Amino acid sequence: MTISRRRFLAGTGGALGALALGPSIVARMARADDARAPTRLLIVHKPAGTVPETYDCAGIGRDFTLSPILEPFADLRDHMVVIDGLAVPKASNTPGEDHGNCIVTFMTGGVPFKPEGTGIAVAERISIDQILAGDPAFSGDVPVRSLQLTADDRALQFFMRILSYAGRGLPLAPEQDPTIAYARVFGTFSDGVLAPAQVAQALANKRSVLDFARGDLQRIRGQLGGDGRERLDRHLAAITEVEGVLHKVVGYDTAALHGELLRTDARKRDDQHAEIGRAHLDIVRAAFQCDLTRVAAFQWGSMELDVSRIIPGLLELGYHSLSHYAGAPDIDAQLTAIHRWYNAQLAGFLRTLRDTPDRDGRSLLDNTLVVVWSEIRRGNHTFDNLPIQLFGGAGGRLAGGRLLRYPNQTTNDLWLTIGNALGQDMTVFGDPERCTGALAGLFEAPVTPA
Amino acid sequence: MRWLPVLALAVASCGIDTGYDVPPAEAVLPVRIQLVTDTQYANAVHDLFGDVQVPALRSPGTAPDQFFHEAVLAVDAPLLVQYRIAAETIAAEIAAAPERIGCAADDADCMRGRIDELAARAFRRALVPDERDRLAALFAQGAAGGDPRAGVGLVVEAVLQAPSFVYRTELGRPSASGAPQPAEVALTSYELAAELAFLLLDSIPDEPLWRAARDGSLSDPGVLAEQVDRLLGSPRVHDHLVDAVLDWLEIPAIFTAGKDPAKFPEMTPELRASMYGETRQFVAEVLWHTKASLRALLTSNESFIDARLATLYGVHHITASELVPVTLDPRRRGGILTQASVLAQLATEQGESIVRRAMFIRRKFLCAPDPGRPPFSAIAMVAAATSQLSEAQYAAFRAGDGYCAGCHAAIDPLGRALHHYDALGRWRAVDSVGAAINDAVTLAIDDRERDATGAVELGAALAASEQVAHCVVDQLAHYALGRELDDPALRAYLYDTFDRRGRNLIEVFRAIATAPAFRLRRELP
User: Fold this and answer.
1) Mean pLDDT score of chain B, rounded to an integer?
2) CA-to-CA distance for B505 and A147, rounded, in angstroms?
3) I need a labelling partner for B196 at 20 to 30 A (CA). Which of A63, A392, B91, B189 fits?
């Protein structure tokens, strides 16, 4: 199977333009003799809820009408499942406040705690993406177990900008700078500008540097007991990841992709919000396409977004402040405009997934499950009936074009159902008392299989 | 919640000799590793190599104005990638100009000879036996193409990514294998030098500390105390501790505090810089020239203003474009809470905020528990009745409403005492709706009530309070120890020392650095 460069470029769109992968990477992919394609998971978080009056859709099942906020997904309706009714099982008397609390609870199924001697709240439990990232049956031998990315890492509190937890009290902080994220996935010298002999030498040098670090780390680890070792083990895993990337990526020509990224400047995040967000999403797409990772979590930002700069005509109020006034008609109109703007950005990315062929002949979107959510329903802090949408075919497991309603179930049930569909042998996700059982009928094969 | 035990101790130590003038002899911190902050990384690189470009790091726990550096963070892949990029960039710069490490461009012997010392300085310790060989092998590998500079580059790249560079190790002497683990270990003289350097220089040890680490003399408490005294007299430490106090009080936030430009056109970047500059110079003066007392921080009307601030403060005889010393009207200004850098950031984009000012004082000076935000249903319920009210009227409404008063009775008086200042910190006779200002309040401090009128009396009341003194010590100790201060004996010793030494902020740092808790660690079970 071959993938033409034209086909890649045909998928460009959005503010930045999709990142084109160079010919050698395409050639490498074409040589992959395994024609089966893996399933990928992308989690997308947009903070501070929605406007129910302009978000909720009329209808049910296959017979529903997209609301104004979801209208930017009109041409993706067949790849989309709208999920209504789920509550985030937040507890009231936990450390921190509502937003961060609900982010932790949504992602891990349990409430946060404060580790001894620290002033910050973090999760007790592992997050869903890390369960899948850590499962070889799902993640295979990809070098990057998972990606954590954000378009804006400002946050009132630490845990508002953390989606992923490797385990109890082990936050995985996201990267804000696309050029760093790129270097994580594609290495720091993978532009294809080195001659083959230089590549071999450069590779040997990088390996020696990493070997030195590993030896040093193991010496310190031997002297340290207890919890400290867990942190060093994560450092060790990061070194292993870098080595895996070196091994797998050297020789890929990603110069075009890198060149595009250099146009973003994370220091100008107020003015380049769309560009930075799209750059991260395009890195995810490239990483999925090259099978360098299968799990990614992306946050548009936490609460401190200043979207008035990017959408003309908005009040000079932060997104978070604005959301607190939800309910007033003029504010709701502005919030609706903001949500439509975000959804248009995401739709642009989803279209490139739809237009990117995977190695099995289906599209990348067909082989991916994208879960889009917010941690609350309305800006006045209500926690039931969260706005959640799924996109993609999850590898032929999920039929689109539906609206499903589960008024008495929780987001833990959603992850249980998704976990099961993606091969996880689990009967409960998160806090068992807050998990009521799988969501009936969510995963059913598409009517016309690809 | 957090200050209750503090109060209990305050009562116990009231005015009598408590016996806390000797620091407790026990270890309170566990053996541990701490990640260096982004600033420490950059400072260390500059101390090693001079004025090289250090790519901006952005590790998850070290946002610019984060005072406490939390220990749950690890070097996960995103941070490791940042370290790699930084190391590769710096290594390339050193390789291009080996004179930075004192060698001519073609002098391979010189470069080879400099490696061990560079690595030891970077790691803040003696090299372990096989490390010399590994570094030599790296140099040889890099230089294999015939250019010794590439060898230096590869060594620098490896050293700056090594865990020994990015972690502060507080492990003590490794116990001989097979020997029963002691419950307590002493930091090595190298580790002690590094801890002292990171605390007071925000970097790796300077030359005198490094010598005292190498010859082991630093393990002698007398030598340690001399080094602490020396460092506390050095301009670089003065600068760093001023920045630490500014970070504690979140003063850098004045550069980004949101202000509606239509309403406050005078809030220019230049004015923000003047506001920051005033407080920086004021804190420097307080720390290093006026006995460093908490009282001066909260009450002194000796400050530094330029023409821009003079306009804001209504001091018309100052026309200088740079900050100059000034004695401000003692009825209107006294202490850091009356400075524009504080008042203007504790506001909304549209106006002054009684609640934000009050919550700041509660967090920074009273360590009062955070009651959390009111539920939105409660705000919605009063929205119609309060939407047209001025700040003062809204506060009066909260005081009169049984539900709101549940929390706000304890919160609002602190902010109301500052109501003579507008959203930029200007003194005003009447408020934004032309109403006379009532800033006579009843404060609940030290578990009792006292009356105060206005900012100056508020500052004096805070300066006299035990609760405030303890709260300040708790926060400085959290910063200095990298962990919440939860050991009762060490706490009591620090409170007592602070009190006996005129509530001198610098003395908290001296007391911590010279206490056994600074040089001892508990073994983990």
Assistant:
1) 90
2) 44
3) B91
- Of A257-266, A337-346, A375-384, the range with the highest mean pLDDT is A337-346
Note whether A84 and A404 are within 8 A (CB).
yes
Which position has the token pair 């050698």? Answer: A24
What percent of chain A is helix, strand and coil (3-state, nearest 5)? Answer: 40, 15, 45
Residue B82 to residue A324, Cβ atoms within 8 A? no
Enter the DSSP assignment of A50.
Answer: B
Tokens 């990017």 belong to A310
Q: How far apart are CA B307 and CA B316, in angstroms?
A: 8
Give residue-wise pLDDT tens across range B16-64. 445 567 899 889 998 999 999 999 999 999 999 999 999 888 887 655 4
Mean pLDDT of A43-48: 91
Q: Quick one: which of A430, A422, A290, A441 has its CA closest to A369?
A: A422
Tokens of B69: 């550096």
Say whether residue A203 is in contact with chain B using an 8 A CB cutoff: no
pLDDT at A186: 83
DSSP secondary structure letter of residue B362: I
Element holding B321 (H helix, E strand): none
Q: Can you tell me the distance from the alpha carbon of B206 to that of B237, in angstroms, rounded to the nearest whole number?
A: 11
Q: From A80, A86, A85, select the one nearest A62 (Cα to Cα).
A: A80
CA distance A450 to chain B (A): 36
Query: Which pTM does this prediction carry?
Result: 0.86
Pairing of strands A40-45, A368-373: parallel
* Nearest-10 Cα torsion for B467, B473, B479, B483: -80
Nearest Cα neighbor of A322 from A373, A379, A387, A397 is A379
Read out DSSP for A227-275?
A: HHHHHHHHHHHHHHHHHHHHHHHTT---HHHHHHHTT--GGGTTT-HHH
Amino acid at B296: A
Nearest beta carbon to residue B74 from set A204, A219, A234? A234
- Is the CB of A60 inside 8 Å of chain B's CB atoms? no
Distances (CA, A) of B193 to B123, B215, B216, B463: 12, 11, 10, 34
Return the amino acid letter for B89.
Answer: T
| Sequence-separated (6 or more) residues with CB below 8 Å from residue B38 | B56, B57, B58, B59, B62
SS3 A423: coil
Of A177, A213, A324, the CB nearest to B162: A213
In this structure, the dihedral spanned by the alpha carbons of residues A241, A242, A243 and A246, taken in order and rounded to 10 degrees, is 120
Sequence-distant (≥ 6) Cβ neighbours of residue B95 within 8 angstroms: B149, B150, B152, B153, B156
Task: Give the highest mean pLDDT range of A147-156, B167-176, B495-504.
Answer: B495-504
Closest CA to A57 of A32, A84, A95: A84
Report the length, in residues, of chain B: 525
Nearest CB neighbour to B80, from listed A120, A223, A238? A238
